[in-house]
Amino acid sequence: MKKSLLFLTILVLGVVGFSVNWAISNGQKSAREIRNKVDTRIDNSKYWVEMAKKGYIDFNPEIKVSQGIFTGSKIEAHSVLTEDSPDVPVTDINSTQSENSVFVDPASSDVVLNSNNSTQNPVGSLYGANDLYSFNAAESWEGEVQGAGGSNSGDPTTAIGLNGRWYVNYIDNPGGMGISYSDDQGSSWTSVTVAPNPGSLADKNHMWIDNSTSSPYEGNLYVAWTNFGGGSDTEIAISVSSDDGDNWATNNNISGAVNAGSHNQGVNIGTGPNGEVYAIWAIYDGWPTDETAIGMAKSLDGGATWLPAFRAIENIRGIRNTETSKNMRVNSFPVCAVDNSNGPDRGAIYITWANVGTPGTNTGSDIDVYVIKSSDQGTTWSSPIKVNQDEAGLGKQHYFPWITCDATNGALSVVFYDDRNVSSNQAEAFCANSTDGGATWEDFKVSDVSFTPSAIPGLAGGYFGDYLGIYAQGGWVYPVWTDNRSGTAMTYCSPYQTNPLNRPADLLGVVTFETGACDLTWTYEVGENFLGFNIYRDGELIAQTTDLTYTDMLPDYGVYEYQVTATYTEDMESGATGTSVQWGDAHISVSPLEISEHLVVDTSSTKQITVVNTGQLELVYDITAFMQVKSDVLAYCDAIGGGDEYISKVELGDISNESLSNYYGDYTDQSTTVEIGGSYSMTVTNGNPYAADQCGAWIDWDQNGEFDEDPIVFTGSPGSGPYLAEIVPPVGAKTGETRMRVRIRYTGELFACGNTQYGEVEDYTINVRGWLDMNPTVGVIQPGDTTVIDVIFDSHDMDAGFYSATALFSSNDPLANEVEVDISLLISSMLVEAEAGSDAVCMGSEATILTNVYGVQDSLTYEWTSVPEGFSSTDAEVTVAPDVDTWYFVNVADTSGVSAMDSVYLMVYNLPAVTLGADTTFCPDIVWTLDAGNTGSAYLWSTGEETQTINVDTTGFGYGVRELSVEVTNENGCVGSDAISLEFVDCTGINELADKTDLSVYPNPSNGIYNIKINSSESSQVELIVVSTDGSIVYRKENLMLSSETMIKIDISSYAKGVYQLIIRNENGLINKKLIAK
Questions:
Q1: Whether residue 895 is found in the same domain as residue 779
Q2: Long-range contacts made by residues 664-670, C-beta under 8 angstroms, separation at least 24?
Q3: Which of 665, 918, 1012, 1075 allows an S-S link to 762, with CB 3.0 to 4.6 Å?
C-alpha cells in the first residue's frame, strides 16, 4: 500500500512537472511581452490596426453614438463677413473620412484640395490618404475615397504649387514616405517614393510647399516625419524636392540637438517670404507622457543644410497622455504658420498647440489652445496667448488646433474642437481669427451641430483622427474637421470669408477711479465708404461716434470688455479692436496678524481672525496649508523604478497630481493636511497596469527620516488598480511636514527604498495638523463685508511643548495677494490661571484672587509672592488690599514635581478727593453753592441731586442747620464723599451786630484786593472770614476789635476769579457781603 502511494505521488509530480515545462515552452507570451510588441509612440492608424490583427490590442468596439444636435449654421463674429455657412460633407460615398488636410489653389481661392484617412464603412479596406476637391468654394465636392494614386497607409497632407500641380503626401504601404501628384486637378495621379522605411515606420509626417514669389526656392517641396527604427531612431527627418516632387534628398536627423528624453514627433513645416524653412515638433522627454516642449529647426538655404535644433518653448504640458473626456485618442502636436503677406507681420512665425492649464503652470482641468509668435526667425518668442476666449477654470476642453495665415492679408485663423457649450463627452468645431498678428483673437462656433466623438469601430487604438485642417487664401478660410453626427465619421467643411474692411486698432481704456469715467481711444486708417464707429460694452452697443475717442460712464465697479468697430455704407461693419478695463479692486484686511494660545494637554479653544473686504469688487480668498516651522532637512533613502507600469495619478486630500512616467518623481512641493485621528481616502492610478502590479505607500509619521512604519495597505493590490486606501494618522504622530512615498512595482516584495526592475516611485509632503484648524478656508467676501475665521487650537494627543505655524491668506487683492498670520500654541502638562475678577482696586479696598489649575491633578501646594515685596500665602484663594500697583505671583506644584506659575497685576486707583468746605452760618438772603469737584464723575447728594454743584438757601427749609453730604464716583469706580453743616439764621430784629455796624467795601469788584471800612456805634470783638463758593475759607481774621472806625485791607488775589462771601460775625449776629474778584 505504501509503494502504491509513493508511485501515485511520483506520477502526479511528473504530470505537474510536464505541464509546467509545456506551459513555459509552448510559446505563449506574458501580458508584458505582448504589450511590449506594440510601440505606443507610433500614432499611425494603419499600424494600430495591424497590431489589433496580431492580437496585441483590441479593435475599437462597435458603439452606437448619439446623433448630432443641430445648433445653427449662423456665424456670429465681427471678423467674419459670412453670416451663414452650412457644413458640407466632402463626399457622399459610404466611407469613413478622418484626419484632415486641406489646401487652396494659390491661383484661385475657389479651388480646394482635401485629403483624409479613408476606409470602407463598416471598416474593411483601409484606403489611406485620398483626394477630394471642390471647384466652387466647397459648396460641392468630388474626387475619390480610395487612396490618391493607390492604396497607402494614410496620415494625409496636401499642397498645391504656383504651377498648378496638386500634391498628397502620406505614409506608403512599406512604411516609408510617399507622395502622389496630379497635373490635371485630380483626374490622374502619379506616385513617387520620398524616402524608404527607416527601420520600423516613418510616422506623423507633414508636407509644405514654398509658394512665395520672392523666395529663391519657390516651388520647393518639403516632407518631414519621425524615424522609428534605424540609425536615426526617434529623430525628425526631412526630405526636399526642387523638381516638383519627382526627386528627393533626405536629411535623416534635424532634431538631435534638442536631446529629447524619449522621442520627437508630430512635425509641422512652414516657409517664409525669402525661402526660410521652419520645422517644429513635439518633444517627449519621457514615455508614456504628455508633450513637454516644442522643438524647432530651420534652414536658410532651401533645406540643403539645417541649423542646430533648439527648444522654442519648454515647460508645456500637452494632452497625449492626460487625454480628454472624449472617447478618442488625442495628442498635442504643434502646428505652425508663417506670414507671407506684405503686411506689418511679414515673416512672423506662429505656433499653436493644446495645453493643460496655463503653459508653465500646466495644472488644472482646462485644456486650452495657445499661440506663440516670433518676429526674428525663431530666435525669440512671445509669451503664450490664449486663442479660445471662453472663461477659464470651468474644466472645458479645446484641442486639436490647426493654424493658417492668409498670404494675401496676413489674417490668422485656427480651427479646433471645443466643448464649452456641450457635455463633457461631446464637442463642436470652433474657429478663431486674429487680424493683429495674434495679439487678440475672436472665436466662434463654425460647425452646425454638436456631436459625440467616438473611436471608429473596426480601427484600433482609440482612433478618431489625429488632427484637423484649415487653410486661408484670398480672404476665404476653409476649416475641415471630422465628426460623427450621422453615426459615421465624416469630414465636413464650413467655409467663410474674413472681414476685409479697415478696422480700428490699438483700443485703450483708462478709468478715472474717482468718477468711473472710462476714456477710450483708438486709431483708424480711413477706408472707403466709412461712416463712423460702433462702441460695444460687454457685447452691447452703447454708443456711436465719428471721433477717435469716447468717454463712457461705467455703471458700477467691475470688469468690462470694450470693442470698437468701423461702420460703412450698405450696413457693413468691420472687425473689432478690443480692450478690457477694471473699475475698482478687491482689498483684504486681516486682523490680527499674530495669534498665540496657551493650553494644557487634552483641551481645546477657539480664537478668531477677522477678514474685511475694504475694496470695491468681491474678494476671493483661500487659506493654504499651514506651513510649519521647518526642522532640519531629512535625508531619505533613494528609490527608483524601472518604468513600464507607472504612477499616473495620486489623490489624497489637496493632492491631486497627474504625472508621467519618470521612474522617480519628486512632488514634495505638493502637500495635503491631515489631522491626528482623522481618516482620509487615497487613490493611486496605474498608468500602464499589469495584473500582478502592486502598490504601497509609506509615511514617516515620527519624522525620523526613515520609512520604518508599516506600509499602507491598498485594496486592489495586487492588480491593475486603481488602488484604494484609508490614511489614518496615528496618535503620537509628530505635527508638521513629513514625507510620503508611493510605489508601484511588478510582483515581488514592496519596500520603500532601493530599485525595482519595473514601476515607479513618487514622493509627496504630508502636513500633520495635530493642534490647529481653521474654518472656513475659502470664501468670497462682498465689498464692505466681513468674514470671521475660526482658529481652533487642540492639544488632544499632543505632547507638551511650543508649536508654531503660518496661515497664508491668498486673495485677488492686487496690492496684498498674500497675507501671513503667525500662529503659535504653548502646550503644558499643568496650566495655572490666577484671576482676580478685575485688574484694579480702589485705594483701601480688597480683592480676592482665585487659582484655577488644569492638567495634572494631585496634592497641590501653593506659594504666593508679590512685587513690591510684602505679601505671601500658601492658600489657593487669597485676599489682598494693595496700596500701590502690585504683581502677585503664584507657583503651584504637585507631588510629582510638575509645577506651573501664573501672575495677576493689580492697579490701585486713588479715591476722588471731595471737599465741601467748613461749616458756615448764613442770613436768609444768601444762596450758597456747594461744589463736589472731580469733573466727569458721577454724583449723588443727600438731597437726591446728581450734579456736580448744588445751590442751598432757606427755600423749602427755613431757618436752622442743614446737614448736606455727597458721594462722588470717578471713572475708575472709586467713591469719595464729604459732608457740611450750613446754618441759616433769622437776621431781622435780632442781629444786634448788623444794627450797630456799618460795613463798606471798595473797590468791589476788584482784582482781589479790597479795603474794608467798618463803623461801629460800640466796641465789640468779631471774626472776619472770606469764603469761596465751594465752602473753602480763603481768608480769616479772628478776635478783630471794632471801634468807631476800623480799616482792614484784604488780599485774595492769589485765588481764582469769581464770587466770594465776606462774613463778619460774633455772638450778636453776622454781616454778609458779596465780593467779586475779576
A1: no
A2: 664/639, 664/640, 664/760, 664/761, 664/762, 664/763, 665/760, 665/761, 665/762, 665/763, 666/762, 666/763, 667/762, 667/763, 667/764, 668/739, 668/763, 668/764, 668/765, 669/765, 670/764, 670/765
A3: 665
Would you list the DSSP string of 897-919?
A: S-EEEEEEEEEEEPPPP------
CATH of the domain at 596: 2.60.40.10
Cα separation, 590 vs 840, in Å, equals 32
Residue 693: all three cell numbers together: 502590479
Alpha-carbon distance of 919 to 933, in angstroms, equals 18
pLDDT category of residue 709 using cuts at 50, 70 and 90: confident
Q: Are strands 572-583 and 277-284 parallel, antiparallel or unpaired?
A: unpaired
The cell 454724583 sits on which residue? Answer: 939
Give the pairing type, strands 736-745 and 680-686.
unpaired
pTM of the shown model: 0.69
47 vs 38: CA distance, rounded Å: 9
| CA-wise closest residue to 194 among 173, 219, 169 | 169
DSSP class of 759: B
Q: How far apart are CA 632 and CA 736, in angstroms?
A: 12
Three-state SS string over 1-25 comes to: CHHHHHHHHHHHHHHHHHHHHHHHH
Q: What are the tens digits of pLDDT across the range 498-514?
A: 999 999 999 999 999 99
CA dist 754 and 745 (Å) reads 12
Position 474 in a domain:
yes
Percent of the residues in the chain that have a pLDDT greater than 90, as a whole number: 75
**Residue 701 and residue 729 in contact, taking contact as beta carbons nearer than 8 Å:** yes
**Other C-beta atoms lying within 10 Å of the C-beta of residue 1030:** 17
What is the full DSSP assignment across 621-683?
EEE---EEPP-PPP-PPPEE--BSS-EEEEEETTEEEE----SEEEEEEEEEEE-TT--EEEE
From 952, 985, 1018, the end of a domain falls on 985
What are phi and psi for residue 596, nearest 5 degrees? -130, 155
Q: What does residue 35 show for φ and ψ, rounded to 5 degrees?
A: -65, -35
